[in-house]
Design brief:
The complex is a heterodimer of chains A (439) and B (584). Chain A has helices at residues 130-133, 154-164, 179-191, 215-229, 241-254, 268-276, 304-312, 352-374, 381-398, 406-420, 423-426, 430-436, and strands spanning 9-10, 13-16, 20-24, 33-36, 39-47, 50-55, 68-70, 76-79, 87-88, 104-107, 124-125, 138-139, 143-148, 169-177, 198-204, 233-239, 280-281, 287-295, 315-322, 327-330, 336-337. With 439 residues, chain A is of the alpha/beta class. In chain A, helix 3 (179-191) links the parallel strand 14 and strand 15 (198-204). Chain A is elongated. The termini of chain A are far apart. The model of chain A has no long low-confidence stretch (mean pLDDT 91). Helices cover 32% and strands 24% of the residues of chain B. In chain B, the strands form six sheets. In chain B, strands 8, 18, 19, 20, 21, 22, 23, 24 and 25 form a nine-stranded mixed sheet that branches. A six-stranded antiparallel barrel of chain B has the order 1-2-5-4-3-6. A four-stranded antiparallel sheet of chain B has the order 12-11-9-14, with no helix packed on it. By secondary structure, chain B is an alpha+beta fold. In chain B, a hairpin with a 2-residue loop joins strand 11 (133-139) and strand 12 (142-147). Classes of the chains: A alpha/beta (439), B alpha+beta (584). The interface between A and B is large, with 82 and 78 residues.
Chain lengths: 439, 584
């Protein structure tokens, strides 16, 4: 473990809780790292000469005479091109049996980009999934989570998006990832021959929960190195941010802070924003795009974690099993990409925004018709046509197994409009109807 | 000056032991290895001052030196503020070096060496008081008034005013003398503490003049007035920011101050990127020329978030004192309230509802009260119209920030998740939203004189039709399509016409995005004409397709330039369709 000979060693701990310990020490910097009997810890509170340390791996077995050494620096990561293709734990130490990475030492959780030095995101990210490309187009420099119940295949969809997205680097930040899911990612990236583009910082369910707090900052420090210093397109995958937030609440609880909504710390919004706002498009070319996962408890998005996330991220993607077609689809009602208007109809065909809206509106009409049917009412001819449309739209476009380019998606949508509706029912601007309505 | 030493650090709350007097809200600088971090006193206990630091405290050690400045957080006021991008503490973001923000880097908000063409407005011998105009310089296209500094109390006599000419912002352009004959030189630049309202006006009447925004659901249905207040609560994804951007682009104001408070950095970037390119439809100049941005995005230090809304309001008050119409937008005031909550929590204060500080309602209402329409000392008028967004937790409007704001603001533009889900944008709920100003006799008179005497009646009729349509829709849902008279379907579809043609508006279409008042008046007339007509249907099945056609033609009209050939063509088509089934 890291140590420095000239550092003073303290051996008198005055207080121990489940996650923190306190001792008397002087000359200690706020957020400075320390080791307690070899375990990494960080300064979270200083009152006079009373210093409180948060021990990442927990305080089990820590004695009151433990050796405490302050390292004189905040948490850091060594960055260089050697990071590529490697797997690390939450402290940035290799877990793949390879050698330590040599490189420049960077503080993690560093300062934010000056907003006037950002560029407006403008490059489309094509995924081939119509539920994303057609209805919720992604853009480089965007931050967007999947809101999913734990039983949904979000890790699969995310891996698929990552591989199709043509990023120079894919950085996986795994928090509370099960060992099975961790191996799944490893295999998928390996099979795709993409391992040299991947960097992983992983905290699995086998590791202590508080360690997770370091993972996003580690992943994003590596991302900033490749995006800013190397001007590369970087895609960061963070899964699962709900477990990250849970770790935050554990720490704040141990520090006797007054909890706000859903037992979360009052600073949850700022804590999450600090991570997500690292997504950026630099004018010089590099970019960081963040795709995250926030697991929900039975679809409840009013819980503090998804709620605060939704206010920070630029949209959210929902997965849902459509029982009519027996497939998982990207839910067109609740999903939203806030940056889509920067590219849709600009980098894609001009009719894109209107086609997208019309299709979703007709799909909504179908949902109303379905409710009517369930309540035992007769359906009109229009109702029945919307329901037929909805089934095909769901199967041919929304399902996550679709893999076509955006122009083909638009043509498909026009085909469906022509098959089921008349022009007035679709209600699209005349110039597009003239051009694309199926003859 | 008082100095002190750091004795405690909990995130950005730093406890300082002081050696002399300190005042509440006094600014101090904490020395962190040569870097000076700005902080504000928020509590004093004995010789311990509790300060909130506007920067990251990483690496700070106990024993660090602290210098107190003897004043509260101040902004610098003078020519050169317009079109700039400031952070919450009024640092000029463009002047900062490097891609990443460095803590302890503070840049001058205005260039005091810049030269301006000065024209005197006062003459020697005039008796003046704080806020009176001494002269004028041209800042972009506005006449930027050089005023008697707001800090001057009582009456002063003008000893001299410089002749017309070019002067540096920092040089004296006038000399004033107080009752004792003591002389004070006055430059173009002054300072003012942000948390203190500027009261350089004689009267603040009830506002009465409509402020056009080009957004139909606001102008027609729930109008806001010059000097009015409004707020936009809504769950995420319901279009708060799109609506705010539409207002900042289209509103009939002399200048716009946008406080991006704890929101996404990319939204500010959108303004930086697009506004310099977009034309102001009224002046023909670039939108950026009338826009000033106070950006404290969500990843910037939390404590400066609170300062950012006050900084924005103070700049607004400064320009209002020049007789200008200011529109102040704050997105979002909930983030500001959360910043207050974080500090209150760290100071271990007893929490109020949802762990917010107990005095939150008072803080919010005294902030909203700083806006308004005023008569200045010289008889001119100026106004600050304030519209804040609120981000209610979980979309639930029964939370402390929304409830406190509802008591303070007069217009309520409630964004509805349901409308957003069905892509009915702007998703302002037509039933829940209101404008108290519609009940003001002052505004009613103004509308009668400036739009038409029937206008208010028409608006109320449309609102009523929407409500009746909603009731009919509920009946249809309960009883089934054929379980209700055809009349119910008709009533529902008439309300849908109002919804689709008046309420819904495409913010991304270059024609539909902004609708001038004359056009709104015309369209409401046409829509009500449909709603007041009787139609002949044999069964309910015919109602839906027929009105879909009517709505489609109306929408094509909304997408066409007003009174263009296309517009007239669609209008003629509309008349034909109506004649098919209308009973004379």
């Amino acid at each position: 473990m890291e140590n420095a000979a000239f550092k003073k060693i303290y051996t008198k701990i005055t207080q121990i809780t489940k996650a923190t310990c306190s001792l008397k020490a002087t000359g200690v910097g706020y957020e400075e790292m320390a080791t307690v009997n070899g375990r990494l810890a960080q300064v979270v509170k200083i009152i006079g000469d009373n210093v409180t340390l948060q021990i990442f791996s927990g305080t089990e077995g820590i004695p009151t005479n433990a050796e405490v050494v302050f390292l004189g620096r905040p948490p850091v990561l060594k960055v260089s091109d050697e990071l590529a293709g490697r797997f690390f734990n939450a402290y940035g130490q290799p877990i793949d049996g390879g050698p330590e990475v040599e490189g420049e030492i960077r503080e993690i959780g560093g300062p934010s980009v000056n907003p006037v030095r950002r560029k407006q995101p403008s490059e489309l990210i094509a995924t081939g999934i119509a539920g994303i490309d057609l209805n919720n187009t992604l853009v480089t420099g965007q931050k967007i989570p999947f809101f999913a119940d734990p039983d949904q295949p979000y890790n699969q969809v995310m891996a698929m998006v990552a591989l199709r997205a043509k990023a120079d680097k894919i950085i996986l930040g795994g928090m509370g990832l099960t060992n099975d899911d961790y191996l799944y990612y490893k295999n998928v990236f390996d099979n795709a021959g993409a391992l040299d583009r991947i960097i992983s910082f992983v905290n699995t369910t086998e590791n202590p929960p508080v360690e997770r707090l370091l993972v996003p900052d580690m992943a994003l420090t590596a991302a900033e190195y490749f995006a800013y210093d190397k001007k590369q397109t970087v895609l960061v995958l963070l899964t699962d941010m709900t477990l990250y937030a849970d770790a935050l609440s554990i720490v704040s609880n141990r520090m006797d802070q007054i909890p706000s909504k859903d037992s979360m710390p009052g600073s949850l919004y700022s804590d999450l924003a600090k991570i997500y706002e690292k997504a950026v498009q630099f004018p010089e070319g590099g970019s960081i795009t963040i795709i995250a996962v926030t697991t929900l408890s039975s679809g409840d998005i009013t819980h503090a974690i998804p709620d605060n996330t939704g206010y920070i991220t630029e949209g959210q993607l929902f997965l849902r099993r459509d029982s009519d077609i027996g497939k998982v689809i990207v839910d067109p009602f609740r999903s939203l990409s806030r940056l889509k208007q920067l590219v849709s109809g600009k980098q894609t065909r001009k009719d894109h925004p209107q086609v997208m809206n019309a299709a979703v509106r007709l799909y909504a009409d179908a949902a109303n018709a379905k409710t009517k049917l369930e309540n035992g009412f007769d359906l009109t001819d229009y109702d029945e046509r919307t329901m037929r449309f909805a089934k095909e739209y769901s199967n041919d476009l929304l399902a996550i197994d679709v893999n076509i380019d955006t122009t083909m998606m638009l043509d498909k949508a026009w085909d469906l409009f022509g098959k089921h509706f008349n022009k007035a029912e679709v209600g699209i601007k005349q110039e597009f109807v003239d051009q694309y309505w199926p003859k | 000056m008082t100095t002190g030493k750091v004795t405690g650090i909990i995130a950005n709350l730093v406890i300082v032991e002081v050696d002399g007097p300190v005042s509440q809200n006094e600014i101090c600088f904490i020395n962190l290895a040569g870097v000076k971090l700005m902080a504000e006193v928020i509590k004093v206990l004995g010789n311990k001052a509790y300060t909130q630091v506007f920067e990251s405290t990483r690496g700070l050690v106990v024993g660090a030196n602290v210098e107190f400045m003897g004043h509260m957080l101040e902004v610098t006021l003078g020519p050169g503020i317009l079109s700039r991008n400031f952070d919450g503490l009024q640092n000029d973001l463009d002047k900062m070096e490097g891609t990443f923000l460095k803590r302890g880097e503070y840049t001058a908000p205005i260039d005091i060496d810049k030269e301006w063409d000065f024209t005197p407005l006062a003459k020697s011998g005039d008796v003046v008081q704080a806020g009176d105009w001494l002269g004028e310089v041209k800042e972009n296209w506005i006449g930027h008034k050089i005023m008697v500094p707001f800090k001057f109390e009582g009456r002063y006599t003008v000893k001299s005013v410089n002749q017309a000419g070019t002067y540096k912002a920092s040089s004296a352009v006038a000399v004033l003398a107080d009752a004792d004959g003591k002389e004070f030189p006055v430059s173009m630049v002054q300072k003012w503490p942000v948390k203190v309202p500027i009261r350089a006006y004689v009267d603040k009447p009830r506002p009465f003049r409509l402020m056009e925004t080009g957004v139909r659901i606001i102008d027609t249905m729930n109008p806001i007035v010059e000097g009015g207040t409004g707020f936009v609560p809504g769950p995420f994804g319901s279009g708060k920011t799109v609506l705010q951007h539409a207002l900042s682009k289209q509103a009939d104001a002399d200048l716009i101050i946008v406080a991006a408070c704890g929101e996404r950095a990319n939204e500010v970037v959108e303004i930086f990127t697009e506004f310099p390119e977009l034309d102001d439809p009224r002046s023909g100049r670039k939108l950026m020329e009338r826009t000033t941005i106070i950006a404290n995005t969500s990843n910037m230090p939390v404590a400066a978030r609170e300062a950012s809304v006050y900084t924005a309001m103070t700049l607004g008050e400064y320009y209002r004192s020049m007789g200008l119409k200011v529109l102040l937008l704050a997105d979002s005031t909930s983030r500001w309230a959360q910043a207050l909550r974080e500090m209150s929590n760290r100071m271990e204060e007893l929490p109020g509802p949802d762990a917010f500080p107990m005095d939150l309602p008072a803080i919010i209402s005294s902030f909203y009260a700083r806006s308004g329409y005023v008569f200045l000392n010289n008889g001119n008028t100026g106004s600050i119209t304030f519209i804040g967004t609120v981000s209610p937790a979980g979309g639930n409007l029964k939370e402390p920030v929304t409830e406190s704001t509802k008591k303070a603001a007069r217009c309520f533009f409630a964004l509805s998740q349901q409308r957003a889900d069905s892509k009915r944008y702007p998703a302002v709920d037509p039933i829940d939203s209101y404008s108290k100003y519609l009940e003001y006799p002052e505004l009613q008179e103004y509308l009668a004189a400036n739009i038409s005497p029937e206008w208010l009646g028409n608006v109320l009729e449309a609102k009523n039709l929407l409500l009746r349509g909603k009731e009919a829709y509920e009946q249809i849902n309960i009883l089934g399509d054929d379980g209700v008279p055809v009349e119910y379907h008709l009533r529902y579809w008439k309300s849908e016409v109002i919804d689709f043609v008046i309420l819904q508006q495409d913010a991304f279409d270059k024609t539909d995005c902004s609708s001038p008042m004359a056009r709104q008046k015309d369209m409401l007339g046409k829509v009500l004409n449909v709603c007041r007509s009787d139609f002949d249907f044999d069964g309910f099945e015919e109602v839906n397709p027929y009105f879909k056609r009517v709505i489609n033609i109306f929408k094509q009209m909304n997408y066409s330039l007003y009174l263009s050939d296309d517009f007239k063509k669609y209008e003629a088509e509309l008349v034909e369709i109506l004649n098919e089934r209308r009973i004379a």
